[in-house]
Amino acid sequence: MIGGGTGDAGGPGGATAPDAEARADVAPAAAPSARRSGEWARHWQYAGLPGLDLLRARYVRHTFPRHSHEGYVLGAVTGGIERIGLPDGAVDAGGGGIVMINPEVPHTAQAGAPEGWAYSTLYPSAQLVADIAAETTGLTGTAGFTDAFAADPEAVRLVNGVHRAAEEGNALAADSLLRVVIARLLRRHGGPLPARTPAAAGARTAERARALLETRLTSPPSLEQLAQELGTSPFALLRAFKNAYGMPPHAWLTDARVRRARRLLEAGTAPAEAAVAVGFTDQPHLNRHFTRIVGVPPGAYRRERAGSARTYKTAGKGPS
Predict the structure, then answer these.
(1) For bias kind Gly residues, which ranges apply (predicted)?
(2) Beta bridge partners of 100
(3) What is the residue range of 46's domain?
(4) Please, which of 116, 133, 144, 195 could form a disulfide with 102 given CB 3.0 to 4.6 Å?
């Protein structure tokens, strides 16, 4: 899945003037102050870019457990090496490269070199990518990325430009650069995602198990109890679930709890309350799992979103 480019010849829209217009230098803003560990991270939203999360970080010892995202991941590696574990194998992404991960693809991440890695990441929603694909490419069906990694210093520069413009409160530049870089990557590395095929018996069992776990997030059954309810055996359920979702039920449940906690924190819920609401024993349990999967602690995640919203409204750019 490590791929090169196929050029900028696209469908309707092709490579257009915005690519050229976006070439003005936009250097990344200064990174947050490094902690003593040498690691730092900022995970935030900019109200001028709806449908997008942003992460800038440097990690050395931090490892992301297997998890997935509802939207896309576009990570611009600016230093070191990030090792991404994907269903088809591991990819080592070095500086000047872009990591591209489609929605709901399970993956891990960790340092691929002693110095760790630094990156600027965009998390565009599925709807945002679909809108850009429809306007700038000839892709049919659900658009996605056929390469997990590509060496593309220009795309890295554009991603950094999105971050810099958002940090400066320049919504016009941030939105323009965002659309340019997504269109560029879709033209070079895009393709239709595989259509869903009729589910086999094992896949149907896994889907039913997932639905049950979603309704019992705070009080899930044991594996044996879940298998009994579904009329199967625990090991058969384990195999079916991992085949369908790339991770066992307990790992999927933790990921689902963190996703729900993110929505609660974005709505202003305190971390301690969010922990109980999603089924964690207490706030320390939420802190541990949230930080491992999202990359920042829940308190910092909540503060960034509250701060971004206040800044946007104070500037007179948002709703009153």
Answers:
(1) 1-14
(2) 74
(3) 17-192
(4) 144
Distance of CA 206 to the CA centre of its chain: 23
**Residues 36 and 153 grouped into a single domain:** yes
pLDDT in tens, 176-202: 999 999 999 999 999 999 876 656 778
**Mean pLDDT within 154-183:** 98
| Same-domain check for residues 128 and 264 | no
Structure tokens belonging to residue 24 = 């003005």
Single-letter residue type at 252: W
Backbone angles phi, psi at 23, to 5 degrees: -85, -5
Least confident of 23-27, 68-72, 287-291: 23-27
- Give the side-chain half-sphere CA count within 13 A for 83: 14
CA distance 309 to 306: 5
Asked if 102 contacts 143 with a C-beta cutoff of 8 angstroms, the reply is: no
63 shares its domain with 124: yes
Domain count, the chain: 2
As a whole number of angstroms, the distance between CA 75 and CA 79 comes to: 12
Calculate the CA dihedral of residues 237, 243, 249, 253 and round it to 10 degrees: -150
Q: Name the nearest CA neighbour of 95 among 41, 149, 144.
A: 149
Residues of the chain above pLDDT 90, percent: 78
CATH of the domain at 108: 2.60.120.10
* 0.90 surpassed by pTM: no
Q: State how far the Cα of 100 lies from the Cα of 187, in Å rounded to an integer.
A: 13
